[in-house]
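Hi everyone,

Forwarding the result from last night's run.
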Amino acid sequence: MDDTKPPAYRKEYELTASELEDMIKLQEVERTAIETNSSYEARKHRRTNHAWQMLGQRMGFKWDTVKPVPGKSQRFFTAEPILERL
């Protein structure tokens, strides 16, 4: 890895109150009776990743580059925008 390479361009985004509420609800998934802790956590993780993927497609950012913005509410985050090809 090249440590001299400048960080990738990041843009700040904001979730709507509804989008944030939906993301929080994903963390409140019901556990099935026979589900282990690890499978339950894996299922929550997959659901959350899928939600970020859908938001990324709709809002134009790379879903796996999301980072919170220090000092701001949960609604704000930065991510690398999807650059259009010429």
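DSSP finds two helices and three strands in the chain.

Cheers,
N.
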